[in-house]
Amino acid sequence: MCSNKDDCTCIQTVSVLWKKYEEAQRGLTGWTGTDCSMPVCMQGYYDPFCKMDAAPGGEGCYRCANDGLCTGPDYCQCAKGWTGYDCRTPVCEVVSDFLIRKQLATIDEEKVHTFETDPCSLSDIYKPTVVEGGEYYSGNCTLPNMCTCHCFAAYSPDMCTVMENDACDAPWQDLDLYMVRNVLAPNEMFGSRDCSRGYEGIVDTKNRYMSCHMTIVEGSWVNKNTFDLLLWISLGSMFLTGAWIYLRRRYKRKLVLSKIERRKSRRSSEESVTGADNSAFTY
Q1: How many domains does the chain have?
Q2: DSSP of the chain, one letter per residue?
Q3: Which of 60, 86, 112 is where one domain is finished?
Q4: Does 93 fall in a domain?
Q5: Given pLDDT bands bounded at 50, 70 and 90, which one contains residue 283?
Q6: Are residues 33 and 138 in the same domain?
Q7: In terms of domains, do 107 and 80 share one?
Q8: 267 is a domain residue
Q9: Alpha carbon distance 114, 139 (integer Å)
Q10: Is the pTM of this model over 0.70?
Q11: Is residue 75 part of a domain?
């Protein structure tokens, strides 16, 4: 409103943004500037050096986080890769291919679409994992198209010496028998970094996670010790086979000796009887 010559009284009102978002600042929102062309965003900040189209008065403008721009009272137009009322929420999206669909183990297009729009947490597809009383989804979207996957058992050789048994277990890899068996479920993978229990996913060209939909396989005790078990079973079989051959030969030898003893005993008995008959004719 023009209150005097070359003097505009801009329309402003108390911001109610804090009622929906507690962290939002309180104050007046609306329009400002010498010509009332500059919108005010309480979730943003004033930039006196703004030279964009949104600052036609040449007096700066209100900006939002991560290169967002205040285009209306308490309304931020976010840059690509960011969303939210203050442009502080990163956007993570992926495109599912045949392999990812197989790993998700579903033909439900709704679930596939849910994964594509939330590849980090997958909160609308899977239930959270309970660890020490807390509930955790597979990960969080921390930067545009970059996930931080949750790890519940980190591996660190340096910390292992300090924390003793903690952080000492490296991710299990089936290096001995991977050529002859597959212990992985469709949604499982061997840990490729410093986590032995948690989640991983697809990576970009900079080796950053773009999803957290794969579970790091821990491996059962049998799976982890299969090679040693096979070795001990082989050695045990060889020992038992050798012992059986030895005992069998000894048993056969004992049978032969027993037969020889019986023959000797029978011969002695026959000779005793023959000798007794011959002595009867001597009188």
Answers
A1: 2
A2: -EEETTEE---EEE--HHHH-TTSPPSEEEEESTTS-EEE-TTSEEETT--STT-TTSS-EEEETTTEEEEETTEEEPPTTEESTTS-EE-------HHHHHHHT---HHHHHHHHH-TTT-TTTSPPEEETTEEE-SEEEEETTEEEE-EEEE--HHHHHHHTTTT--PPP--TTTTTT-----TTEE---SSEEEEEE--B-TTS-BS---EEEP---HHHHTHHHHHHHHHHHHHHHHHHHHHHHHHHHHHHHHHHHHHHHHHHHHHHHHHHHHHHHTT-
A3: 86
A4: no
A5: very low
A6: no
A7: no
A8: no
A9: 15
A10: yes
A11: yes
| 256 is a domain residue | no
Residues 6+ positions from 70 with CB-CB distance below 8 Å: 39, 40, 41, 44, 54, 61, 62, 63, 64, 76, 77
Host domain of residue 7: 2-86
81 & 120 share domain: no
Joined together, the tokens standing for residue 193 give 């970094």
Q: Which two tokens stand for residue 120?
A: 């980090």
Q: What average pLDDT score do residues 194-215 get?
A: 93
Lowest average pLDDT, out of 69-83, 162-176, 241-255, goes to 162-176
Residue type, 13: T
Query: Is the Cβ–Cβ distance between 29 and 73 less than 8 Å?
Result: yes
- Residue ending a domain, among 226, 247, 267, is 226
